[in-house]
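Hi support team,

I've been running sequence recovery on a batch of backbones for a student project. Most finish fine, but this one hangs at about 90% for roughly twenty minutes before it completes. I'm not sure whether the input is malformed or the queue is just slow. I've pasted the C-alpha cells below so you can try to reproduce it. Let me know if you need the job ID as well.

Thanks,
M.K.
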C-alpha cells in the first residue's frame, strides 16, 4: 500500500511516512498506541483500516476525531475538496490531481519504485502532503464544532460495526435463487 502523509501536530511540518512499522518514527508509533492522544483524519475509516491492517495497531474509534463530521455539523460538505474550497481561502485546498494519482497507485497498483513512475510518485507524495495540509486547515477552522458528549457516544457506537465479517462472493454465487412456490393448500 502506498504511503500516506501524516502530521503529528496542528501546525508543524507534514512528512510522508511509509506504512511499515520499521519506517515509523518512534514518537509516531508511541502516539498511535497512546489512548490519550487524539488521532485526527478526514473520513477516518481509511486511516483506521490502513493502521490496523498494515501496522497491526487497532485504535478504538473513541480515540479518533473526524473533521468531515465537524464540517457536516457546521453545515459544510463532508467532501474535503468542497469543504476546503470554502474554508481555505488562502489556497490550501485539496489537490484536484489526486484522484488520478490515487487511481494509478492505489487502484491500479503501479509500482512506485519503477523509474517509469518516478515523477508521478513524486506528485503523489506532494498530493498526500497537500491533502493533510487541507485537512488540518479545515479542522483548525472547525474545532469549535466539536461534537457533544452525547454525539461522541453515538460516534463510539459506530465503531462496533468494525467487527463485521468481510465476505467476498463471486458473481455466480451471488445470484439469488427464487424460492419455490408455496402450495396453495398451505395458505388455507
Amino acid at each position: 500500500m502506498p504511503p500516506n502523509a501524516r502530521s503529528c501536530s496542528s501546525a508543524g511540518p507534514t512528512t510522508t511516512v511509509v506504512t511499515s512499522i520499521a519506517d515509523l518514527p518512534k514518537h509516531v508509533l508511541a502516539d498511535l498506541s497512546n489512548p490519550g492522544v487524539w488521532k485526527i483524519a478526514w473520513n477516518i475509516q481509511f486511516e483506521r483500516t490502513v493502521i490496523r491492517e498494515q501496522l497491526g495497531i487497532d485504535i478504538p474509534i473513541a480515540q479518533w476525531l473526524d473533521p468531515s463530521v465537524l464540517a457536516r455539523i457546521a453545515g459544510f460538505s463532508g467532501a474535503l475538496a468542497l469543504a476546503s474550497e470554502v474554508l481555505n481561502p488562502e489556497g490550501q485546498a485539496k489537490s484536484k490531481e489526486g484522484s488520478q494519482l490515487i487511481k494509478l497507485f492505489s487502484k491500479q497498483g503501479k509500482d512506485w519504485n519503477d523509474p517509469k513512475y518516478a515523477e508521478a510518485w513524486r506528485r503523489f507524495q506532494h498530493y498526500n502532503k497537500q491533502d493533510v495540509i487541507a485537512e488540518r486547515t479545515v479542522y483548525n477552522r472547525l474545532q469549535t464544532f466539536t461534537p457533544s458528549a452525547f454525539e461522541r457516544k453515538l460516534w463510539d457506537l459506530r465503531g462496533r460495526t468494525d467487527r463485521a465479517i468481510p465476505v467476498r462472493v463471486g458473481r455466480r454465487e451471488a445470484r439469488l435463487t427464487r424460492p419455490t412456490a408455496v402450495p396453495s393448500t398451505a395458505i388455507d
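--
Follow-up from support: It reproduced on our side and the slowdown came from queue contention, not your input. The chain has nine helices and four strands. No action needed from you.
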